[in-house]
Amino acid sequence: MKSQGFFYLRPMTLTALHKLFLEHPKICTDTRKIEKGCLFFALKGPNFNGNAFASNAIEKGAVHAVIDEKEFHVEGKTILVENALETLQKLSIYHRNYSNAKVISLTGSNGKTTTKELIHAVLSKKYKTIATKGNLNNHIGVPLTLLSIQPDTEMAIVEMGANHQGEIAFLSGISQPDYGYITNFGKAHLEGFGGVEGVIKGKSELYNYLLANDRYVFMNADDPIQRQKLASYTKKIGFSTHDPQYYIIRPIMTNPFLEVAFDDLQVKTQLIGEYNFTNCAIAITMGKYFNVPVEDIKKAIEAYRPQNNRSEVIEKNGHRIILDAYNANPTSMMAALNSFKAIEGENKVLFLGDMFELGDAAHEEHQKISEAIGNLGFETAYLIGDNFGKTENGYPKFESFDEIRDYLTKHPLPPSTILIKGSRGMALERLLEIL
């Protein structure tokens, strides 16, 4: 029987599927993480087929499994659809519109997850708020975030990531945000976007959705790209260090932790680097716009502590380590270097790993970073990976993590102030075990 474009072994409309979801409001896509009473969606990937695990999911406690290959049918327990992923996405749209929660979507080249966590911390002081878990910000993660909206949820913060044109437009169509924010436009995923102009075009797809649907835009009014693109748009809320048309928020110092000022308040964060200023500023802006008491805004930001290898400060064996190894691109790498240069510390040491997804710009961008190290006056730097290995500079280079591990085992560092930064694939947090 056909219903709303899907074939089922038993009749079920999208409305009926949503009703079933409300009765069992837990979604699982991984049989290793099955929760009793959940709905299992059999998704597919290059190296796996979730349909083959449907019966296992049911055995582990899933109340139903949504499959798209009928040979894996389990009588009375499976719902057969044309495409399990598309069904998950359409169910999330249905639930988003069923809910009364306001949706805030955000994207950008750098700082998305930290910004999302700060906004969540601030808005949670007044509202029932949910947010994307970790960085589950793709075509699967965004639907799962929307489906985590509870009956009492008032605010839903949805992080959206992309590395190609069209992805943000697609995710915006799923999340249908009431408000949106772009952290910045940087040199990230240049290979997929086709250069910096491609990044600006791709990330601006969120603006395109908001403007086309007469929704509200949050902005960094000191960012010339944002200011230009939103010049004639009236539904905008922003922050600036100097423009009185917007909320005035200023950085005070970063030595090493960032401090910011607004409304005669001084906020002492646990975040390293001035590059985190805009992340804090937009959280303050949203807090003020949504009438969160300013003292609660201050408390929320001061209590936030970065995790998951994002600008963490670690004291270990006499070292003071800034671990910023979650990801890297040329923009975030330069920001980290400039910030590290500005902070006080004895015997500064850099461990920098390759930046991925730069395509034809990889050699040029790695060479620029290697030259910047010297221009900023850093004497000790260790460069790790194939791309840094091809650069011309006087710093020691290591093709692999095994090489730098062996070197440090034989040449342990004296107590130092250390920055560790590289792309996720480099997994440079492993250096902590050696240091």
From TrEMBL:
* A Gene Ontology biological process term: cell wall organization
Q: Which residue range or ranges hold the Mur ligase C-terminal domain?
A: 310-390
Q: Which residues form the Mur ligase N-terminal catalytic domain?
A: 27-71
User: What is the protein's known function?
Assistant: Involved in cell wall formation. Catalyzes the final step in the synthesis of UDP-N-acetylmuramoyl-pentapeptide, the precursor of murein.
Q: Which gene encodes it?
A: murF
The alphabetized UniProt keywords are: ATP-binding, Cell cycle, Cell division, Cell shape, Cell wall biogenesis/degradation, Cytoplasm, Ligase, Nucleotide-binding, Peptidoglycan synthesis
Q: PANTHER family this protein is in?
A: UDP-N-ACETYLMURAMOYL-TRIPEPTIDE--D-ALANYL-D-ALANINE LIGASE
One Gene Ontology cellular component annotation held by this UniProt entry: cytoplasm
Its protein name is UDP-N-acetylmuramoyl-tripeptide--D-alanyl-D-alanine ligase
* Pathway terms, separated by semicolons: Cell wall biogenesis; peptidoglycan biosynthesis
Family per record: Belongs to the MurCDEF family. MurF subfamily.
Query: Could you tell me which NCBIfam families the record lists for this protein?
Result: murF (TIGR01143)
Subcellular location(s) of the protein: Cytoplasm
On the tree of life, the source organism's domain of life is Bacteria
Origin organism is Flagellimonas lutaonensis
- Enumerate the Gene3D superfamilies for this protein: Mur ligase, C-terminal domain, Mur-like, catalytic domain, MurE/MurF, N-terminal domain
Instruction: Give the GO molecular function terms.
Output: ATP binding; UDP-N-acetylmuramoyl-tripeptide-D-alanyl-D-alanine ligase activity; UDP-N-acetylmuramoylalanyl-D-glutamyl-2,6-diaminopimelate-D-alanyl-D-alanine ligase activity
The residues that the entry says bind ATP are G108, S109, N110, G111, K112, T113, T114
Which residue numbers delimit the Mur ligase central domain?
107-286
